[in-house]
Every structure is written in structure tokens, then in C-alpha cells.
User: Which sequence fits this backbone?
């Protein structure tokens, strides 16, 4: 059996960097990594997944950039919410079709539980938008054009389908919002 050398232990420790969101993170050296964390945003838990591919250049600076960019997550979410609100008014958009699909034949129990209203006539775009929460953020530091992928949901207890928006590494939101399962 081979014993680990003191040098191997030293290298392993040196490859780990502290992240304010993900804790101790091993830097990428030719392997895929996925780090998960939970973050609170506006009083609601949000799952964060940091995805590093084997070919990504993921060093200490890249990890610090992730932490830095996550400081601006509330502004990013507000920007996406504004886009969703605008698209709720337009025929044929993913947010409008998502709303129609999930609200068309809703029963009274889900109407109250998910949207907080008692009558279907009270289910306005504003009520729908308030019920729509950010549930998950995928972070892909090796993909500058899809650095953040944000999944908005009405709740896992209600649906497994999400509205997805993405933003680049500078926090610029893509103008397309998708409906995915």
C-alpha cells in the first residue's frame, strides 16, 4: 500500500480555498466538481449549484468572482422579475403560457396555498408574479455567456416546471425566458 507523502497532503490543502457561499472549495485541476449550498434571498431559501467542468480554468480568482457576483443576485432577480412581468402581458411568451397552464384549471386549495387568494378572479399577473420564487441558481464559471442560470418556480409541492432565465458573467440577463421541466 502506498502512503501519502507530506507533499501530497500539502498540495491538497493548498488546492482548497474558502468561499463565503460554498465553504471550503477544492480548486479544479482537470476534474469535474459540483458544489451545492443554500442561500437566503428575501426570506426564502435558494439552492446554489456551482458547476465546474474538467476543462474549465477554475482558480482562486474564479471562485472569488463567483462570490462577488452573488452579491448582486438580488438586483439580477429584480431584473428578471421585471422581464417576466412585461412578458406576462404579451401573447405567446413562455411566462404567459406558464401562467395560463398553471392557473387555468387550478383548484381552490392550490389557489389559496400557492397564490394566497380565495377567488380565481383575484389571480392577477401581480399575484402570480409575487408567488413566483427563485428556487435554484446554477453557476457555470466556464460558460461566460450562461454564467448564471436562474430557475423560478411556484413551488415544488405544486409543480416541477420552472421559468428559466440566464445571465452572463457581467450580470447581463439574456432576453429569452424559457419554460422547462
Assistant:
Amino acid at each position: 500500500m502506498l502512503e501519502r507523502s507530506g507533499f501530497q497532503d500539502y498540495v491538497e490543502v493548498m488546492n482548497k480555498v474558502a468561499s463565503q457561499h460554498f465553504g471550503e472549495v477544492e480548486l479544479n485541476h482537470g476534474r469535474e466538481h459540483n458544489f451545492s449550498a443554500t442561500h437566503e434571498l428575501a426570506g426564502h431559501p435558494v439552492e446554489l449549484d456551482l458547476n465546474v467542468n474538467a476543462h474549465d480554468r477554475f482558480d482562486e480568482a474564479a471562485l472569488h468572482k463567483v462570490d462577488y457576483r452573488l452579491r448582486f443576485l438580488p438586483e439580477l432577480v429584480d431584473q428578471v422579475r421585471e422581464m417576466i412581468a412585461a412578458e406576462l402581458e404579451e401573447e405567446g411568451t413562455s411566462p404567459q403560457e406558464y401562467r395560463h397552464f398553471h392557473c387555468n384549471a387550478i383548484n381552490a386549495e392550490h389557489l389559496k396555498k400557492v397564490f394566497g387568494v380565495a377567488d380565481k378572479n383575484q389571480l392577477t399577473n401581480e399575484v402570480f408574479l409575487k408567488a413566483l420564487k427563485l428556487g435554484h441558481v446554477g453557476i457555470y464559471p466556464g460558460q461566460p455567456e450562461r454564467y448564471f442560470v436562474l430557475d423560478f418556480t411556484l413551488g415544488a409541492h405544486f409543480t416541477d416546471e420552472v421559468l428559466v432565465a440566464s445571465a452572463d458573467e457581467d450580470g447581463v440577463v439574456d432576453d429569452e425566458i424559457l419554460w422547462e421541466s
Summary: Confidence is low (pLDDT under 50) at residues 6-13. Helices lie at 6-14, 60-70, 73-88, 94-103, 108-115, 125-131.
